[in-house]
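Bug #77: duplicate submission created two jobs. Keeping one. Sequence:
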Amino acid sequence: MKKRDRLEIIHDILKTILDHNNSILPTPLLRFSNLSSQNFNEYLNELIKKGFIREIYDKRGRKYYSLTDKGFKFLEKYRKIREFLEEFGL
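Kept job's structure:
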C-alpha cells in the first residue's frame, strides 16, 4: 500500500469536508482523515492558518469546519492536475 503524500492528505481532508455538504464536526473529520490526532491537528491548524478552511460554531456552540473559497479553488486545481497526469500516463 502506497503512503499518502502531503498534498493527497490535504486533498482528502478538504474533499471530506466538501462531501459532507461543506460542514463537518471535528470528530468525524478526524475519523475520515485516517490520521493520528496529532498529525490531524497539525494539518488542520495549517489549513486554517492558510485560509483553506474555517471554523464555524452553531447556536449550541458546536464547532464545524467548512471550506473557504481558497479551499474550493485548491480542490478544483488539484482535480485538473490529476486529470493532466492521467492523460499523459504519469
